[in-house]
Amino acid sequence: MDLSFSAEDNAFRHEVRAWIRESMPTDIAAKAEIDAHFDMADVMRWHKILFARGWVAPHWPKRFGGPGLTATQRFVLTEELELAGAPALSPFGLSMVGPAIMQFGTPEQQERFLPPILRGDEVWCQGYSEPGSGSDLASLRTTARIDGDDLIVDGQKTWTTYAQYADWIFCLVRTNPGAKKQAGISFLLVDMKTPGVEARPMLTIGNTPAFCDTFFANVRVPRANLIGPLDGGWTVAKALLGHERTLIAAVGPSQRMIRRIKRIATDTTDGGQALIDDPAWRSRIARLEVKLQALQMANYRALAGAALGHAPGPESSILKLRGSEIYQQTFELAFDLMGSHALAWFNEPGVIPELEQWVASGYCYNRATTIYGGSNEIQKNIIAKMLLGLPGA
Amino acid sequence: MDLSFSAEDNAFRHEVRAWIRESMPTDIAAKAEIDAHFDMADVMRWHKILFARGWVAPHWPKRFGGPGLTATQRFVLTEELELAGAPALSPFGLSMVGPAIMQFGTPEQQERFLPPILRGDEVWCQGYSEPGSGSDLASLRTTARIDGDDLIVDGQKTWTTYAQYADWIFCLVRTNPGAKKQAGISFLLVDMKTPGVEARPMLTIGNTPAFCDTFFANVRVPRANLIGPLDGGWTVAKALLGHERTLIAAVGPSQRMIRRIKRIATDTTDGGQALIDDPAWRSRIARLEVKLQALQMANYRALAGAALGHAPGPESSILKLRGSEIYQQTFELAFDLMGSHALAWFNEPGVIPELEQWVASGYCYNRATTIYGGSNEIQKNIIAKMLLGLPGA
Amino acid sequence: MNFELSEEQQLLQQNARAFVKQRSPLSRARKLRDGALDRALWREMGDLGWLSLPFAEDVGGFGGNFVDVAVLLEVFGSTLVPEPYLASIVLAGTVLARAGTPDQHQRWLSAMMEGRTIVALAHDEPGHRFSPRPHSAVAVAVADGYRLRGRKEFVLGGQHADVFVISALVGGEPALFVVPCGTEGLTVRSIRTIDGQGAAMLEFDSHVPSDQRLTGGDPGDALDRGLDAAAAMTVAEGLGVCRSALELTLSHLKTREQFGVPIGSFQALQHRAVEMFVEVELVRSILALAAARADHDNPDVRHHATSSAKVQLAMSGRFVAQQAVQLHGGIGITDEHDIGLYFKRMHALTLAFGDEEHHVRRFGARPAFTDLRANS
Amino acid sequence: MNFELSEEQQLLQQNARAFVKQRSPLSRARKLRDGALDRALWREMGDLGWLSLPFAEDVGGFGGNFVDVAVLLEVFGSTLVPEPYLASIVLAGTVLARAGTPDQHQRWLSAMMEGRTIVALAHDEPGHRFSPRPHSAVAVAVADGYRLRGRKEFVLGGQHADVFVISALVGGEPALFVVPCGTEGLTVRSIRTIDGQGAAMLEFDSHVPSDQRLTGGDPGDALDRGLDAAAAMTVAEGLGVCRSALELTLSHLKTREQFGVPIGSFQALQHRAVEMFVEVELVRSILALAAARADHDNPDVRHHATSSAKVQLAMSGRFVAQQAVQLHGGIGITDEHDIGLYFKRMHALTLAFGDEEHHVRRFGARPAFTDLRANS
Description:
The complex is a heterotetramer, with 2 copies of chain A and 2 copies of chain C. By secondary structure, chain A is an alpha+beta fold. Chain A folds into 3 domains: 7-89, no CATH class; 124-233, Butyryl-CoA Dehydrogenase, subunit A, domain 2 (Beta Barrel); 248-386, Butyryl-CoA Dehydrogenase, subunit A, domain 3. Chain A has helices spanning 7-23, 26-33, 40-53, 71-83, 91-104, 107-119, 233-245, 251-267, 279-307, 314-337, 359-365, 376-387; strands at 124-127, 143-147, 150-157, 168-174, 185-191, 197-203, 209-222, 226-227, 269-270, 273-274. By secondary structure, chain C is an alpha+beta fold. Chain C has helices at residues 7-23, 26-31, 39-47, 66-78, 85-99, 102-114, 219-255, 267-293, 299-328, 339-351, 356-365; strands at 119-122, 138-142, 145-156, 163-170, 173-180, 186-191, 199-209, 257-258, 261-262. The interface between A and D is large, with 55 and 50 residues.
């Protein structure tokens, strides 16, 4: 057992850190400093900067344009980006449909779709969930019926994050209504500019633009946009879900929040005493930092296992569960430290310190972290059955 | 709405309080002072003292020897006894089989069994749970087959608290193995001195004698000892379970524990500072006291409703759930305040202060409070279905 | 001991329920987020006697008590009625009533009770968490009155106020001044708040005539009582909020299907709903204590009741709000769904007039907390 | 970065597992509660090299590290091996090794590593919660040595000890003395503890020869390091305890039937078991940090690792222990069932060498905790 990184990996870390310092535009760095919400323009600008450096898709194979980093380097890169508060790139192209096209797409599809994803020229979104099917994904009702060389799509998708900005959406659609639940589903790519597609953006309870309802009315899509065989979309979807879970341990963002918490606690006084010097507040911060430290070690275990080529072990399944909870707890603690300031809604310049401005909003919209990516309840069902071998109900 | 007690009730409270002060034997009072474990001799001695005063069965109707108190007076009496730390009387005769015999027994049975319960001449225990049937009571397997005027009982009961001291046990036995679960069960009284009955006492994890396994091998019991009709025991059992739940809100015992916690926190110093003057410990005590205060108000609501003749409302169902949890939390906090002292097992005179001596033991055995009387998980199932109307699985 | 509502209180409850159903259902709260006050509705509340409910008859009030107010506010909470009842009537009103002279009552309290004037209390200052006393706002005697200088934060209802009651130190002791909106040197900045009900930030360097200093009672005591009353009534409104959040959630659990069954049939979700229910019942129980003791003359008894209720609301209310969103799943995160409105109002209520940490400390700082003779 | 055990560590793990299965299964822990030590088994551990595992080769040790010790202690925890490895080898041994001269190592450490002598550290004093320093025990120089006076509490392993290492102030500074059992003026009282492993209370007013004062290193540093090592290794043993408690519980959930189905099919119980599992994995994860840093030379780094691990163990271990009993239902409360043994040992481990509150404070008191330059 060895908890240190190799000299090479440490050198790479310093390279990354220095590059971020030099390359991050000042306005983005200013937002990062206070963990403000990044709008889509920020995200895509940062995407292109990373692309120029070759680091936009560390997990892509070299032949598709990946940088050929080791597992540990990939981790170090991600960690440093998170710690720097860099905009989180949209995962829908890079981490979801991209890898799916690599695994299941034809050479033509790979050539058509992968380069624009890498360059950030085309933005993607995900059409999985429907109003009636959240956790029970396979109960989806959006249909695509065959009409010559085309498919005609009708239905509604929800939770289509970034649909208002997206050029393309990848969808699960029911192509065989007669087949059993999972059997009649296909994986289809739809150009968002196709007539009949409409994305209606919604706000979160944190007042951030986040996801859309996306409607399909008689939308004509070429059969060539199917990934995998007709009625064979469930296999593609399952492979893709696996990628999603590891994205949301949120250790780096939580570490940034701990730092922000300490800064708030240092700046906030009560009768002349900084809250960080108050034993009760300091204890609460310390306890949360300890929990995050344990999570970070669990994250490192998963990384180290992956670097050795092990399949993700039980330690990775806890990352989503506790990662999402701890991230929420960091916002809750920051919110509590602010006292009356937490009442202020964001975008009211000068009312409360900049550092606090996005806390209340973040506290609200991050209630989503225990819901999305497979709700924590669903995660527990999976762990109970898959890892603990507990009997079905 | 009026939160005060009437002048009459306050006078009654003072009467009770004064009587307790005068009547409690000094050795029992000394144990009460430190909430030491009362042995059965203490309990029965106190039973007889209460009997002499006429207060041993406040909830019994006058015609069976009850004192004819109002609902509020009964509550005040119970509250004062709890606050004084008086030994808790055995509920099995007074609160369980006694009321069952009143409701379902014949006049002969009432005459035979009720007076000795009241006087404390006969000790009872309960034969419900079996090794294979805890929460799922109706799956019990102890049988009683008819043999002339007798029943022959075979089987095993568990959780038979006080069986090692008991003169009688009331049992649920299967008299009709062919009938469906609840249908073939009878309610039977068995003399513990009958040949073939054996009680094997067990210790709790707090090292207190508490309950037994009780074995029945070819035990001959007169049919006259059936309460209610043959195969009609489930009705009796159900009526009786209702009595049990309200016994365990434990507000009084938790209040005593809060007081003990404050005394421990006052007496325990760290580098010269009493823990009660340390903000973190004081906060923790305050938070727990607040939770208990809310529970006490819920308890008062239930009392006030009962005094008006209302059937127990939703507020009473929370008493068992939170009451058991809060009682456990009081022991946990006392345990934590003790620091290294919590390592000491009890009955080691002079090692730790008397006031702390029973804390670790109590912390251990009171893990039972969320299990017995219908585990908290079962309570939640009941509330979900009965009060919230949530659909069955 | 009796927890039943009187006949009058039952009637008040029925009227209030009918009123909010017709005049201020939840959709109104959504529409009025960050918006202006509907003065006609406020005056209507005055006509119904609601704005004079907690005030003694000798100051022209209805002569009710805080149990009555709790009945009203629980109903207001159930549909998030956006009117500043808590801030204006309960908080500012109590301070005015306690600290004002009969003339001053006549001048400002009467108009407030009729719904003609909105009053807000400005007491919160930077750097002092939930302190009931002024710290850096100062008034100095000048010709014909006082020069009042300072800043006040998060004045609830302040963006609607016609008149402010401002606390400040005079010779190191707390004093209270009535300062109408529009007074020279007074800047009122409206700000948005998480619950959409808004507040104001005040800066002032103004001349205040002598007769606008409240001189009918002890200002420190009036502030303490006002904040206690407001904290207690926050719990009443919070109970209404919790109850609605629980109802919405139960309804979702019963109707939303996944895997072919209502999600409310899953035991883990059932038990979560039960925990929410239990917490709501505990808030309801402790509210009875807080409402009954919100105007108790013994500060230790009053602080015990109001702080314990406020702490319980903070613990229970936040749990209920968070779980309500969680059990709604994805739609619970959208601003379009109503549950988020309850979620945010609940958090504003737990903060208002002292957060959990503040009231835990105050509860533990009471002399009675460490008096071990009391309990046995 | 690598979390895998080395081949040697895997072998150690296999050997230890085989050993406890044959020689010290759980039934032995039950039998030996409050009982005497089995000296033959202890010597056998010495022969296996286990008692010299964490000590440098230049003091005659095996030259291992605390990752090796963690491997061993996790296995010991799994069947509650009652030998005082933590108290004697890890705690007293580290202090002896750090503070002793080569002669003193020869005299006491060698015998300890061979299993011939049991050593215990007496440092805990009344009125100072988990302090690593002496406060009222005092040694005064006299002819040929020192007069050592004071009291020590809860000396773990002390009831079995042949030799004590006792901390005391000399001229206001910490010092350490080796005091054999049987020294005139030393009273050793054996006491029972919740986990059945026992401890001793010491009173002493004894003459101690000069060469029994440890003079090979800084006594304050040695105490701090000994307690850090012990705290870190408590987490290793605690992991073993947690894992066994979880295994027993899962097995119960799978076999115990109610309402005609295994109770492990109920979703609420499944989710509880998952929570237990997650907590065990977190303990396992943080242990890696604590084991690797238990002997780090920078006290801030060492305290960060050991205190965070000890806090996590306290939070997770208690939760796992409580839920294990709860999910066992009635039988879990009986002394006859094994789960209670794990429950009580878990609580003893969370207390030993600093409880949750102590380590939370120590974690927060590190200079690095408030150094905001560190993190970005």
